[in-house]
Each structure stands twice: as C-alpha cells, then as structure tokens.
Amino acid sequence: MRAPGTLSETQEIVRDNLDYTLFSWSKQKGIHPIAVQRAEGVYLYDHDGKRYLDFSSGLVNVNIGHGNQRVTDAVIRQMQEVSYVTPSFATRSRGELGKMLAGITPGRGQGQAHLNKTLFTVCGATAIENAIKLARLYTGRHKIIARYRAYHGSTYGAMSAGGDPRKLPSDSQQAPGMVHVEDPYCYRCPWNREPSSCHRECVSHIERVIQFEGPGSIAAILMEGESGSSGCIKYPPDYLLKVRALCDRYGILLIADEVMSGFGRTGKWFACELHGVVPDMIATAKGITAGYLPMGALIVSEKIARHFDDKVLWLGLTYSAHPVACAAAVEVLKIYQDEGLIENAARMGRYLEEGVDRLRGEHPCIGDFRNTGLLGCLEIVKDRRTKEPMAPFNGKPEEMAVMNRVSARLTEAGMHTFVRWNYVFIAPPLSITREQIDEGLAMIGDALTIADGYVTE
Asked: Which residues of 342-356 are buried (b: 16+ CB within 10 A; e: fewer)?
C-alpha cells in the first residue's frame, strides 16, 4: 500500500513520461496521455484497469490486433539465432519476406511490370524518401508531383512531398522539386462540380501541371493507394487509372503510397488493386508488421530493379532488412492469411457502412462518411446544405473546441480513435467483430450528440 500523498502507479508513469520524454505533434503542457499497461485484440487497458476500444488500430497500423503471441514467438526465435547483421548480409527471414511480398503485390504475371523486389526501410517516411530518390536516380529527372491533401511522412523529403499543414512550421526548409496538385475531393470539389456533371477536371488539372512544369523534368507522381489521414478522400472511379495513363504518356513513374492503405486495410492486399492499377513502386510500412516492430518497405517493378543490375543503387540504411523485423513481418503476413483478416476487413467494412447509415439518420452533424474496407472517416459539419465544417482545415485551438469535446467524450467512454479537424476516423483492427463495431458506433453516436448541438441548419 502506498503512503498517503504518494503518487499512484499510473500517476508516476504519466509523470515520468511528461517529465523526461517529448510527445509528437503536441504542446508539451496540458496533455493527458493514457498510461497503457497491456493490449489484447481490439482493446487497450490502462494501469487502473480501464478498457479502451482501439477504433483506429493505434495509428492505423495494428492491423492484426494487439497481443498476437505468434509474432512474439517468431521474434524470439529470430533473436535466439541472430538479432542483427548489416544489410550486406543475407538472412533467411529477409529472403522469405521478399518472396512473400512478390507473391502478393500487383502486376503478378505481367513481366517487367511485376513489383517483385523490395528495399526494406525502417518506417513509412523512409520508404517514401527512398522512393523519391530512386525515381530520380532511375529517370534522371527531379520533380515529384503529389497532392495537397496527402500526408507522406515527417522527414523533410516526405513532408515536402505531402501537403499536410504540419509541415508549415518548417516550411523554409522544404525539399526542392515538389509540385502539388488539387485533390479529387468530391464532397468539396475544387471545381464546384456535382457527380452528374463531373468531367474529371481533377485529372485534366494534373495534365496541365505536367505541361506547365515540363514533362521531361518530372520523375514521378506520388499518390496514396487510398487516402488516409487527410480525410479518407475517395478517388472517383477511374481516377487512378487516368493518372496511370498520364504517367505512361509522359514517361513518368507512378509511386503508390500504401503506408496506411496496404496489407488488407481496404479489403485487398494493396488499395491500388481496387482501382485496377499497377504502380511502378509501392512504398509501404505500418501493416507489414502490424506495428509490432518498426519497419517499412519500398517494392519496385522488375524493370526498375533490372536498371540497377550494372549500376550502383545509391540507397541504404543501417537497419534495412533487420532480421528481427523481417521475421515479425513474415509471421504477420501468415496471420493475415491464416485468420482471413483481409476478407474480414471487406466484410466488416460493409457492416460498418450500414451502421453509419443509421447514425446519419440520428445525427445531423454527419456531413459525409468515406470508407474503404476498414479505412473510414466521418466528416462533421454545422450545416449539411452548406457543408460548413464543425472545425476548419488546420484550425486554431479555439476553433477546435467542439471537436475537442467530442474527442474527450470518446476517451471518457472508453475509446481511442483519431480525431482531427472536423474528422472522426474509424479504422479498427481487421480482426474486429460485428459486436465490437456496434460497441464503437454506440460510443461515437453518444459523442456526436455534442456536435449536434452546434448544427445550424
């Protein structure tokens, strides 16, 4: 028993975290982190025994759910054999993982278009960084076209390629050669088109930018396989196919950022499969190890790989192809298959959409719901007719008051999920059940009553 006036175990843990560590994307004072003791399946548990439904899979990375001991056992076996060797060595886990990835990537059976060779990185940002470098090395060009509302990582190159406003405080240090285009944001179309009158201005806009910038200077177009933290913005049908056609027309590489959307999140191994598109490279991370260990991957086509048969590949990382991370990834890929998690993501995604349809009838603050598999986002508005957001894009703290209250209500109710601007994200582990989706939607419905009180329509 602790003496009166002493800190509880939870308070001591939180104090040490706040006193001796820095927290990402946050002011360091006034934050209240949850002290997590353990996690299992779709739930987190704090040191006081409170349970939280993890409705965003951590940061949309714990795809297989928490606490799967198959991964633990695979990691232990690998560490008992060899915990680290330099990337110039070959290991069983590295080769096995590379072979497994070649068996699930787009382009199988399409010769040089097949994405069958992988450079292993340490995270999604380093996968993107190396994709940009490789595109420039391969093409001899330097410009990269990307979308304003995409997030590609927090390193300078990856953040410069994205348009996320988290880069603005470091704006003077952006990497050169990045060109941004408007998003195919149908709910808030930049060209004020309704679906019935859409002529894919979002695609012709990209072609004009290519022509303005000079096709001979553009190395690659970087597109998310499916939009994530920028609001799960749904591509119009045929959008990515048309972007692929532009790349082919002008000799530009297509890089698919599948860091968040890869490994079953959208009901397919990779989201670009939903669009019938084979990119030249896939940059991925998160679901490759389901967050159990840090790892990323850059998967490239046979054609690109062959280019470096007799040329030096000027890319490398100390922890590239880390044998323990590779062993974890091999086991995670087996779990996806053995437990039918990708099929479950598609099935539970449809069930989730039915549940949100019911919520829409009860909560006038829901302006839009965009979802693919189990990668979804509610857009919260003050007025469905005008689509005025409950909080503006990159809003100031005082403009976030209502959404902050919604977020606080969710935490109080026992849910962890990602709330940003006027978005509430829904991206639970792929192992989730109908009953757990119902549990989560009930919590969200309760929290949205706060936002309903500010609807002006």
From this structure: bebbbebbeebeebb
Alpha-carbon gap, residue 99 to 154, rounded angstroms: 29
Q: Which residues contact 123 (CB under 8 A, 6 or more apart)?
A: 153, 285, 294, 295, 296
Q: How far apart, in whole angstroms, are the C-alpha atoms of residue 352 and residue 372?
A: 10
Element (H, E) at 402: helix 401-413
pTM over 0.85: yes
Strand partners, 300: 117, 281
- pLDDT tens for the chain, 457 residues: list them: 556 667 888 999 999 999 999 999 999 999 999 999 999 999 999 999 999 999 999 999 999 999 999 999 999 999 999 999 999 999 999 999 999 999 999 988 888 889 999 999 999 999 999 999 999 999 999 999 999 999 999 999 999 999 888 888 887 778 999 999 999 999 999 999 988 899 999 999 999 999 999 999 999 999 999 999 999 999 999 999 999 999 999 999 999 999 999 999 999 999 999 999 999 999 999 999 999 999 999 999 999 999 999 999 999 999 999 999 999 999 999 999 999 999 999 999 999 999 999 999 999 999 999 999 999 999 999 999 999 999 999 988 899 999 999 999 999 999 999 999 999 999 999 999 999 999 999 999 999 999 999 999 7
Mark residue 124 as left, alpha or beta (left: phi above 0; alpha: psi -120 to 50; beta: remaining): alpha
What is the spatial order of strands in the sheet that 36-40 belongs to? Answer: 36-40, 43-46, 51-54, 415-416
Spatial distance between the Cα atoms of 417 and 422, rounded to a whole number of angstroms: 13
Place of tokens 């976030």: 400
Q: Are 242 and 223 in contact (CB under 8 A)?
A: no
CA Rg value for the chain = 22
- Residue spans of alpha helices (H) in 173-319: 201-213, 239-250, 302-307
**Distance from the Cα of residue 136 to its chain's centroid:** 24
* Positive or negative: CA dihedral 218, 224, 229, 232: positive
Q: Smallest Cα–Cα separation from 176: which of 229, 123, 219, 225?
A: 219
- Interhelix angle 323-338/341-362, rounded to 10 degrees, is 70
Pairing of strands 178-181, 143-147: parallel
For 21, the enclosing helix (H) or strand (E) is none
